[in-house]
Amino acid sequence: MHSLAPGSLLADVRPALLGSIAQAPRLGTMEISLGQWLLILFLVVVPLLYEWSATFKYFCKMAFYNSYILFLAVIVIPVCALRGRNVENMKIIRSMLVHVKYLYGIKIDVRGIENFNIKEPYVVVSNHQSSLDLLGMMEVLPDRCVPIAKKELMYMGTVGLACWLGGIIFINRKKTDDAISVMSEAAQTMLREDVRVWVFPEGTRNHSGSMLPFKRGAFHLAVQAQVPVIPIVISSYRDFYSKKERRFATGRCTVQVLPPMATQGLSADDVPALTDRVRQAMLVAFEGLSGELGAPQ
Q1: If you ran DSSP here, which 8-state letter would residue 121 be given?
Q2: Who contacts 76 (Cβ-Cβ below 8 Å, separation ≥6)?
Q3: 257-296 pLDDT, tens digit each
Q4: In a 10 Å sphere around its CB, with 0-12 CB exposed, 13-18 middle and 19+ buried, how is residue 240 labelled?
Q5: Which of 7, 79, 130, 236 is the least buried, fewest Cβ under 10 Å from its Cβ?
């Protein structure tokens, strides 16, 4: 048996060892792909922009708000579909949306909720500032109450389907005859099925810090059905939100339910005066509430 010299053994092992080392990955270096660099850049830059730029924060918050509403609609649809199109589905929709205010740090104070304590159907009219009005609406939405919305909303994917299942009444604002027909049918539905209706009489979102002139459709509806009008005022969002200034912070607002205004005995000729009376009462309340919160007019 022959013994191997140490030098001979090392000579035999060295080439194999060096080859293995050459083929092994270099542990001291790590190649980063372009995609990884972009991801790192995104994770660093976005938080900094969010903290430093009010405009960037505004767009981030609005994007999340709209996306989250779409997401919640996906969850709501299967549950509501079990019942079909039904006003009772608004309870499910409300339960899914009422928590959104907490995500944005918005505190909502409610006043005058006792004014909803009437058994008959009624028409709710509310000022309309932005899509954030949805939060105030969900805070006080009475049982068996559905909004009247523009027909375009029905075609907004999952949100439109959820709204349809909730019994929301859609009108084509561009066709007067169609709108009148829908209002007339709504009046009959209110009385036959004990339904309340929520209308934004300004007709569109108003970012001016006041109120636009009211359209009369909601008041014709109330007079035709001979049911009360209950005005609801949401204070100005200027304390924490401004679309014009691209600003969206935490804050608070107040939702005030005003006493019902009777329509018994009124006719179509009385609608203009009723419209003006309701708007004036809401405008006074709006300016008072917004003043309390320190919102500039």
Answers
A1: -
A2: 92, 93, 96, 162, 165
A3: 999 999 999 999 999 999 999 999 999 999 999 877 664 4
A4: buried
A5: 7
